[in-house]
Amino acid sequence: MPGSARAMAALTVGGLVLVTAYSVTIGSDGWLWFVWVVLGVATIGAMVARGN
After folding, report:
1. Collapsing DSSP states into helix, strand and coil, what is residue 41?
2. 18-42 pLDDT per residue, tens
3. 4 near 47, Cβ under 8 Å?
């Protein structure tokens, strides 16, 4: 996995941790989960593109 895809994967996992912590502490926010899903799809796309 190249450096940029690895950094994006780390950002995605870190984002999941932050969104989960925010949801548990303050309450769920649909926009945060939507942004996290978009980031996850972009990360998967970057990994697939780098794999080819």
Report:
1. helix
2. 888 888 888 877 888 888 888 888 8
3. no
Q: Is residue 15 a contact partner of residue 23, using CB atoms and an 8 Å limit? A: no
Residue 9: how many CB atoms within 10 A of its CB?
16
Q: What is the pTM for the complete model shown?
A: 0.70
Q: How is residue 25 written in tokens?
A: 């502490």
CA distance 39 to 24: 20
Taking only Cα atoms into account, the Rg of the chain, rounded to an integer number of angstroms, comes to: 12
Strands (DSSP E) along the chain, which ranges?
Answer: none
Compute the distance between CA of residue 39 and CA of residue 14 in angstroms, rounded to an integer. 11
Q: Cα–Cα–Cα angle for 17, 20, 15, nearest 5°? A: 40
What's the pLDDT at 33? 84
